[in-house]
Amino acid sequence: MTTTDPALRALAHPVRLRMLSLMWAAPLSAAELSRELDISHALASQHLRRLDAAGLVELAEVRSHRGGRERRYRTVHGTPLSDRQDGTPLLAEALAHNLRDRAARRVPGQEGVTSDVELWVAPEAWDAFRTRMAELLADLHEAARAPRAPGSVLLGATVMAFLVRADGTPEGAAGGAAEAADEDPAALTTP
Q: Please, where are the H alpha helices in the chain?
């Protein structure tokens, strides 16, 4: 984990990833998030402050509530996960945590889509797939509604697609293919 990137540190926590998803379509307060996520108000506030400090949420409104002032935040739209390459292992762990949690809550008998691939494809096929996947996810985000809005259903989707080093070296390990790929993506193809 980097010590200089607060957005990466904020994104690398499964609860904060869920909070960003919940606040995508509608602003929510710490109290609303605590109820939705079944966590304490104090913990929801702490996570919300971390997201705010990282610039991943913005104050949407302040309203009177029970004699006090309730601050409601919304997710800053964009693709912060796709832009984070330096912390891929941390993000993968947070995504895996959320995937395990969602899979345990899957509605029985309902259709879904499940796939796991590690394939060799032409670079053009990868570019086309990545573009289509980004467009599909953008469409899904655009269709998002506030949590528990009438006529809505809760769905879970976890997607992480990327090029893989052909020589099997992990991130940060010394290796010819890894170093060559930094300079030339064609180095990832077969000889």
A: 6-11, 14-22, 30-37, 41-53, 88-104, 123-142, 176-183
Listed range (82-96, 134-148, 177-191) with the worst mean pLDDT:
177-191
- List of residues 6+ apart from 23 with CB closer than 8 A: 33, 57, 73, 74, 75
Residue partners of 82: CB distance under 8 A and separation at least 6: 134
Q: Give yes or no for a contact between 147 and 73, defined as CB atoms under 8 angstroms apart.
A: no
Helices (H), 1-79: 6-11, 14-22, 30-37, 41-53
Report d(CA 65, CA 60) in Å as an integer.
Answer: 15
pLDDT in tens, 61-98: 999 878 889 999 999 987 556 666 677 788 888 899 99
Global pTM value: 0.75
| Side-chain half-sphere CA neighbours of 34 within 13 A | 12
The phi, psi pair for 139, rounded to 5°, reads: -60, -40
Cα dihedral angle (145, 97, 99, 51), rounded to 10 degrees? 20
- The alpha carbon of residue 14 and the mean position of all alpha carbons in its chain are separated, in whole angstroms, by 9
Determine which helix (DSSP H) or strand (DSSP E) holds 57, and give its type and residue range: strand 57-65
Contact indicator for 43, 33 with CB cutoff of 8 Å: no
Per-residue pLDDT at 77: 86
